[in-house]
Amino acid sequence: MANLWYDHQHKTLVASNPQRNSLYFLRLAGSSFTYITERALPHDTTLLSINISDTPEADTALFDIPIAHTQGFTILRVRKDLIMPIPYPDAPLIDSSLLATLLPPIDEAADPPDEKKKGKKKAASPVLTNGKQKIADEMVAFESSLLKSLSSLLTSSLEDQESSRRSTQSLYEANQSTLLKLVSETLTENTGKILKDTITSGLQNIVLPRHLQDDSAALSESILQPLSRDLLKLSTSLDAQLATMRAHQIERDQAFSAKIDRILSALQRIESALPPNLNGHSLVKDEPSTPSIDSQRISDYLLQHKHEDAIVVWIQSDEREDLFRFFHPLSPSIIDQCSQVVLLSLAHTIAVNLETQLQDKLRYLERALTLIDPENAQIAEVANDIIRLIEQQLVSISGRLTSGDITLRHIKALHRYILGKFHHLE
């Protein structure tokens, strides 16, 4: 609720508004009061009370206005000709120029509203002018920030769309290239067959007509002799090429066999480094195992939580495809405690045959590759060769999958992981 104070000497009414934390100044004109101005106090001040001074002199204080603010407590003394802050003892002084701006003195000589010239606008208060200017500046800054944000958002969206379009275009061009290559090869093969049949049929109809049967021997000789020579040359060339290809194949087979021999030899050499909990199992098996015995042993080991022993038995078994059913429902995390030798052997054994149970085998293969440390002394000697064989198997199996197969993306991701982790082994 507002409090009112009236100054008889200056015919001025002062009203306080605690809700708005401001002062209203009104002037008595005739028989009614006319609103002069409202002055809001700073946001960090609070209007406490207003006391009318009993001093009759015109140049002394008319109102004492206690004002609490963030830095202390001050009395604002309103006089006829000025507004002056008078601080309490040890209280900080409020800037008089700021208070004069907020609460200007009442002009005694100001004309009443009915005597003002019509059409003349009242001058805007400095606080209102400054507030409007501040709002305008903030609006300009907000518009500029909004435009920048919208521009950045649109640019990012356009870049994403362009990237998506390029990716789709590249995929489309790759598919078109593959399709065109397949169509070209099919057309070439079919055209060759048609030409061969046409030429054979034409030769038979031309060379052996009924009315030229007497001359067939001479005509056949004239045609077959050059053809025989050409076929002989072609046969000789083909024989040479086949011999060269067989020699290369033999060399590759020998190199591959030598690599396998080195791997098996190295595995046998590092068997002695296996931990004692493998119970004397060998990673390289000499004799075929009995499926029923291996099945029972794997089941027993899994029930006893001897996962590494179960993995070794599975690696040794000749019925790995059938016995993999024991690991299908289990999490690949069961191999987390296996030794590096067992992990490398497991990865190689899984990669040898990815034709069946592909999804489950990929889960175990990925886990094993994640755990393998190629710098480990137990496997450092053979890690490179085995990892390269696994990589070749992944490339081979991916070539037999369709482009839309989700498993193909899994294999490609695993291949990229191998290249990133084991590239230094080259």
UniProtKB/TrEMBL annotation:
<dbReference type="InterPro" id="IPR045152">
    <property type="entry name" value="EDC4-like"/>
</dbReference>
<feature type="region of interest" description="Disordered">
    <location>
        <begin position="106"/>
        <end position="126"/>
    </location>
</feature>
<dbReference type="InterPro" id="IPR049404">
    <property type="entry name" value="EDC4_C"/>
</dbReference>
<keyword id="KW-0963">Cytoplasm</keyword>
<keyword id="KW-0677">Repeat</keyword>
<feature type="domain" description="Enhancer of mRNA-decapping protein 4 C-terminal">
    <location>
        <begin position="338"/>
        <end position="395"/>
    </location>
</feature>
<dbReference type="GO" id="GO:0031087">
    <property type="term" value="P:deadenylation-independent decapping of nuclear-transcribed mRNA"/>
</dbReference>
<dbReference type="Pfam" id="PF21289">
    <property type="entry name" value="EDC4_C"/>
</dbReference>
<protein>
    <recommendedName>
        <fullName>Enhancer of mRNA-decapping protein 4 C-terminal domain-containing protein</fullName>
    </recommendedName>
</protein>
<dbReference type="GO" id="GO:0000932">
    <property type="term" value="C:P-body"/>
</dbReference>
<dbReference type="InterPro" id="IPR044938">
    <property type="entry name" value="EDC4_C_sf"/>
</dbReference>
<keyword id="KW-0853">WD repeat</keyword>
